[in-house]
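Narrative of activities, Objective 1.

The group set out to show that a structural description can be obtained from nothing but a protein's sequence at a throughput compatible with the screening campaign. Below is one input-output pair from the validation batch, recorded exactly as produced.
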Amino acid sequence: MLRPTREIVVRNEGGVIVSASYRGGVPHLFDTMLARPIQKALAGAELMAQRVQSGSLRSYVATLIALVGLALILARSGALS
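Output recorded for this entry:
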């Protein structure tokens, strides 16, 4: 369930084992199953936000006015209630 990792390295010289090393570990499930996917999703959202932002104040104001107008139209038609 935890998917432990193991690595065994054996070094031979002339048919005689000179050294052996063992390395093992258990991955952090919180990091691999929850934190990394959320981090990737947030990085993708950040890239989209950077594309939308043009740096022009006029475009921000125009977008804000359009969104307020759309909200008022939807509220008047009863779609928001």
